[in-house]
Amino acid sequence: MLPVIQIGPVVLQTPFLILIMGVWLGLTASERYARRQAYDANRLSDLVLVGLVAGLLGARLSYVALQPAAFDGNLLSILSPTPTMLDPLGGMVVGILAAVIYAQRKKLPLWQTLDALTPGLAVFFIALGVAHLASGEAFGAMTNLPWGINLWGETRHPAQIYEILGATASAMVVYRLQAAKHGPAGVFFLGWTALTAFMRIFLEAFRGDSQMWPGGLRPAQIGAWLILAIVLIILGKRWREVQTP
To answer: Are residues 231 and 167 in the same domain?
Structure first.
């Protein structure tokens, strides 16, 4: 783990830096893909920027609404660039909503836009796994296997490394499918989403910090199963639409 990097009096949060790098590399990958597909890369960059800015604002405002006690007596701390004072779910909802509104106003084609965003999403998910490894979050369950790592006083599955490998494998498989240029618009995005959901179902079993419901059910796995089912239905529909004369 490497949660912080100290340069003199300056302390930088390593996971936050990794995520910023992931966004930058991901956007670069998406722009290159967009240009190869004759898609407007500038519009794509604007879409990502709108989603990121709105997402960050939404994540902070959502955190303020959920944790008002954290700002008692110091309202200026709301403006503090502290990544731990963000609500990921709230930020994701606001960011996606803002991006959808922008895409509709600019009349961006849905499936081509999602395909163009897929390389960036794939790169970002790899960076997310690296950020988890640096911070120690998303740690694994206890194990006696020889490749276990010592974390929080126990030998655990290297779940963060599993996450990185899973995200990399998903990206490589879908990239090879895309390179074959086979299938209708949207298959690149839907294929990556399906693989990512499948990886989440599999990898969640090795997590030691997952929320558990009665009966050993994990909400993250249930959500991933739902996403996988919906994506496969849409994927089948896309194929039928293309094959129908």
So the answer is: yes
Q: Is residue 133 part of a domain?
A: no
pTM of the model as a whole? 0.86
Q: Is the pLDDT of residue 181 over 70?
A: no
Q: State how many domains the chain has.
A: 2
- Per-residue pLDDT tens for 147-168? 998 887 889 999 999 999 999 9
The DSSP-derived string for the chain is: ---EEEETTEEEEHHHHHHHHHHHHHHHHHHHHHHHTT--HHHHHHHHHHHHHHHHHHHHHHHHHH-GGGGTT-GGGGG---GGG--HHHHHHHHHHHHHHHHHHTT--HHHHHHHHHHHHHHHHHHHHHHHHHHT-SPBPB--STT-EEETTEEE--HHHHHHHHHHHHHHHHHHHHHTT-S-TTHHHHHHHHHHHHHHHHHGGGBSS---BTTTB-HHHHHHHHHHHHHHHHHHHHHHHHH--
Is 34 within the bounds of a domain?
A: yes
For 226, the domain range is 138-245
